[in-house]
Design a protein that fits this description.
Length: about 280
């Protein structure tokens, strides 16, 4: 049975239509067609974003054998995140994103610390009582614990914070040539969007290392093809990433227009060693 989180209600009567559908859609393809049919007046990008957020087939793939939803995650994936819309201020550079995941998601709802549940409930009551001093103090406690109460489309949502390091690429640092352009491109791609993140592990800084998808597009692919990131081959040997970098080099896209672009990992090493 396909099910949706409360974020789904932002499309008005769609949830009511879903509950009244007899029988309700049971497969991913049926769910996609139902959403598309009931959101004909909405912008195509918004509809496709919603489908991608829930891992449902996009319009152009419906009816094809390859569109069948996966029953298991790709090999090596530890878990999957479905994020809330990304804040433009949560993108520090071209290969890192800070995201929030609603605690209504099944994985998150079963792992919320008890004190955070209590603090969130107390904060809600404090806001209702217009005790904003207490509400702010409780928000601070929640934030320190790695959670946050966010206002998403006039709905307050308790969410967990994750720092995501885009797997397999290394963008120029902010003070390097094309560092600013790399960040601007990533902002353009994901700001205000729901993301699907396949997490493979954590790096030494505690960031989740994962593949990021936005509206059905693979973010790392776009960054590489536009010449705004290097293939981080020391940590990821995927042939497709190497191919996308090679194509960008051949076209002299982005940083490849420079006569001798410096590798970000070598730049960081020089900085650490004081060179």
């Amino acid at each position: 049975m396909i099910s949706f989180s409360p974020n789904f209600v932002r499309y008005g009567k769609l949830l009511d239509a879903w509950s009244e559908q007899k029988p309700p859609p049971k497969t991913s393809e049926e769910a996609s067609k139902f959403v598309i049919d009931n959101l004909k007046k909405h912008q195509k990008a918004d509809v496709e974003g919603l489908l991608a957020f829930y891992g449902l087939p996009l319009p152009q793939t419906l009816g094809h054998p390859s569109a069948n939803s996966q029953t298991s995650l790709p090999q090596g994936v530890k878990y999957e995140l479905r994020t809330l819309p990304v804040d433009v201020k949560a993108i520090p550079d071209g290969d890192t994103i800070i995201v929030y995941v609603s605690t209504t998601e099944p994985w998150e709802s079963s792992n919320i610390p008890k004190d955070i549940r209590v603090a969130a409930a107390q904060r809600s009551k404090a806001c209702a009582d217009k005790n904003y001093t207490m509400a702010d103090a409780l928000q601070k406690k929640i934030t320190i614990s790695g959670y946050r109460v966010l206002n998403v489309q006039n709905q307050e949502i308790l969410a967990r914070k994750y720092r995501i390091r885009l797997r397999g690429i290394d963008a120029p640092e902010s003070s390097m040539p094309y560092g600013k352009e790399a960040k601007e491109e990533l902002v353009k791609l994901v700001s205000g969007k729901f993301l699907r993140v396949l997490v493979y592990g954590e790096d030494r800084y505690g960031r989740c290392v994962g593949d990021v998808y936005c509206n059905g597009k693979f973010v790392q692919e776009i960054m590489l093809k536009k010449g705004l990131a290097w293939h981080y081959s020391a940590y990821d040997q995927r042939i497709e990433l190497a191919t996308w970098e090679k194509e960008a080099r051949a076209k002299r896209e982005g940083l490849w227009a420079l006569p001798n672009p410096e590798k970000p990992w070598e730049w960081r090493k020089d900085k650490r060693e004081g060179r």
